[in-house]
Design goal:
The chain is of the alpha+beta class and 163 residues long. Helix content is 27%, strand content 29%. The protein has an eight-stranded mixed sheet with strand order 5-7-6-1-2-3-4-8, with helices on one face. Helix 2 packs antiparallel against helix 3. It is flat.
């Protein structure tokens, strides 16, 4: 009988501990930087995009337009950074786990990483290998970066394969 009582106390303690955890919430500070990259099996990122403030306080995006392509740069209005913040909030990206991995070991495949920094010092960081979170947050971030890069100027030349 004493064994059952101890077991019940242990179970209820664990349950109350889980219920008492604070839920992750959207950071309150302004978004000041967002970065997303996706890697395949080839050298270098399949896709990379970064939005951040330069030394003068202007937001700049540097992103690829297509897979394994060159980087493009464009200055963007501070209001555009709010679109990224809106995606993070709508898709609840602040609730992402730090790491995503499949149940089974995969020896070949793909990976990704996402990071967002806020003016209050809060950081969201998440990455994965052959697994990703539910929802469309990562695809929406990449889509907006790609859309903005379409109007940018090329800043990085692809390496010539013939040389």
């Amino acid at each position: 009988m004493k064994g059952y009582r101890g077991l019940l106390v242990c179970l209820f303690s664990g349950l109350f501990g889980l219920l008492g955890c604070t839920a992750k919430k959207m950071p309150e500070g302004d978004l000041v930087r967002v970065e997303f990259s996706r890697h395949g099996t080839m050298a270098g990122p399949e896709y990379k995009g970064i939005v951040e403030q330069d030394s003068t306080g202007v937001f700049v995006i540097r992103a690829m337009r297509e897979a394994y392509g060159p980087m493009y740069e464009k200055k963007i209005d501070a209001a555009v950074i709010q679109k990224f913040r809106q995606i993070i909030e709508e898709e609840k990206m602040y609730k992402y786990k730090e790491s995503y991995r499949p149940m089974m070991e995969v020896l070949d495949g793909w990976g990704w990483s996402f990071e967002a920094k806020f003016s209050d010092g809060t950081k969201i960081y998440s990455h994965g290998s052959n697994a990703s979170p539910n929802g469309n947050g990562l695809a929406r971030i990449r889509g907006l970066m790609t859309e903005l890069a379409m109007e940018g100027e090329q800043i990085e030349m692809p390496e010539d394969e013939d040389e």
